[in-house]
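Re: export button greyed out
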Amino acid sequence: MNLKMETRQADGVTIVSCTGRIVFGEESNALRDYLKRTLSSSRSIVLDLTGISYIDSGGLGALVGVYSSARSQGADIKLTGLGPRVRDVLQITKLVTVFEAYDSEQQAVAAFKRGAA
Amino acid sequence: MDLTTIIPAAGSGVFPTLVFVQGNEQRVINLDHSPFSVGRKVDKDLVIADPRVSRDHAVIVSENGQFSVLDQGSKHGTFVNGEKIERRVLERNDRLEFGVREAAYVIFNPQHSTTNSAREFLSQISGMQLSQETTDLEKLVIFLEAARKLNTVGVLDEILMTLLEGTLKLTRAERGYVFLKNEQGQLRLAAGRNAKGEPVLEDTTISHSILDDALRSNSEFVLTDTSRSADLVGRNSIVAYDLRTVICVPLRKPIVQATRGAKDGTTAASGEAMGALYVDSRFASRDLSSVSQDILHAIATEAASLIENARLVQAEEAAKRYQQELAIAASIQQRLMAVTIPEVPFARLGGRNLSCKEIGGDFFDAVNTREGLAVVLADVSGKGVSAALLAQMLQGMIYSQLTAGMQLSEIVTAVNSFFTHKHIGEKYATLILARIRSDGELEYVNCGHIPPLIVSADRVERPEHSNLPVGLLPGAEYKGAQVNLKPGDRLILVTDGVTEAQDPQGEFFEDSRLEAAARKGTLEDIFTAIANFCSGAPLGDDCTVVELLYTGSKGQKTH
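Workaround output, generated via the alternate export path:
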């Protein structure tokens, strides 16, 4: 499998950093499972995609699926670290209008703080 | 031995056959069930349309491993080898006649195929009495040879049953079981037989502690005499049912022999246990400890490899079936891609698809409607049969709504709400739906797809207009866009398999190369450019390109 995920806490927000590729099959399944587990203990997640070189349609489906179920549970996932490839895909599919994406992790965390205040 | 219970699935080639001869015609029938009926009535297994044949003439039944023919009170009688009979056990090459003589007859199980000889081999051994002339070991060797032949037919159940029957005969144990590990590593009963050849199920008298010991130990087989073992007091079932002797043979995966030159001491190497053969006798009258060690050794070394081989054959058959299903799905997919392109006086349309190994979810379609010539190109996420199925559903929905004259944005809104409502998981599609009128007005709606290319004489445009893909989010809103084409302008639609085609170094084809190829030439030129770029590297995804050339409305009446 070509996807690694790591979690740490920052200011009450869970940061999930991904490295590798998010593609149909093993990788997208792993991402979905990992985020679902994370969502059981955290309602605020920043997904850092800095290390993601490639995302395909299956990976995108998994990402949107987890995002939708997070929102329906009252939780939220914000994105940061979009490389050119990931940004292109989100642009083409108009999913930039669905996800909140931030230039830096600090901005994403701050956005959660603003929402909570 | 009850033959009906060990007859394997159809087509395995181990059934006895009937050869039915009528006039110049000859037909081979597998005797794969019992009773097998013969008569003039159309519901018979063998229908002989002749007035001398009674409606319910005779049946062929299997009993104790043999086949018999029974007359059913027919008017003109049933004959075996010319002799009128009521009931007769059938032998190879027996000639059966039902009322009508000469004009139609049946030959029972003529000897011709090699698989039949393996079957016969087995039945010979099962029926063999333990005589003085043949040693037990010789019989076992014959049995194993037969089983190995059967193995090519690949029927695990039959192998297990024959293994048990052979072992019971050789050891004269009362009952025998084969346990095989399931995927979770738990032992599950795979077959059970008693000395009379009747199937038996697992019960509490089987000592699981001995089974576990045998699997854990490194020994070839465990022969336990409970009356002499003091340490077995704690083993409930042994004590409760006063079992005397148990033979338990672990079935280990055969290990591929290491190089001959390797050091000594590796001979005892044994593979992972995949199950156990367990036989026991409850009565002192049969002391299993007198069973020859040679026999147990032979069983232990051969049984596991037999089962392993049978499993491999089974897995191969399952894989073959899976391949067939995939081939069916692929052919459906190909028919979807085989679009009959409507001819219109104002435009020319072409499409081409280059499939990668797996079945993908690309499709394109074209429909001529009153509102203009409509074309759709879609790419369903994921691969395989599920993607192909979704593509087919999508194609059907879009086709019917186009012919109904609906607005393009209405169509994709309806498709989106259908797919999100049906909760088809994370499957979705990106697509472009476009419709061109005879006056050159092109309306289109892009749902998360790669932007189309609009190629004019001097430039290539990539309109940024887009919407969400369909099937991803409920309640998504879709807006269309519009552009006017001049005669000679082209609209080119591609799937991301094109821009993401990779060369051997892993570089992508990208939009820039696509635009350059589109500016220079037509559909074929684009595919040539992709092929040259990839220079032999396999495609990761289906590549589909659709080209719509607007030729103008010459000769068209304007309203």
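Chain A has a mean pLDDT of 91. The button fix ships in the next patch.
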